[in-house]
Specification:
The protein is an all-alpha fold and 98 residues long. It has 3 helices and no strands. The longest helix is centred in the first third of the chain and has 36 residues. The chain is elongated.
Amino acid sequence: MNELEILRKNIDKVDEQLMELLGKRFALTEKVGQFKVSNAVNSVDPEREKAVIAKWTNLAAANGVDEVFAQKVARLVIDAVVGNHDRLKKLESDALIE
């Protein structure tokens, strides 16, 4: 295996770790969504979103990652989470109607 192949193999391993961590994060946010539905809490929490984006920005800076890129990724993740929470609310609402 040449150096490029080794580097790419290592990148593939990091990609796997990223997806595993995202999977864990989304599993936790699923539980948050269920809590919000059960307790009639709004899907959107602007203060929490600001805090998450700020934290990701700081983590990016500390790890040599472009801060604007980190903010964009955080926004994508947050939007996916909110969308999932809205889906859970709709499922709950539909179940109540039936």
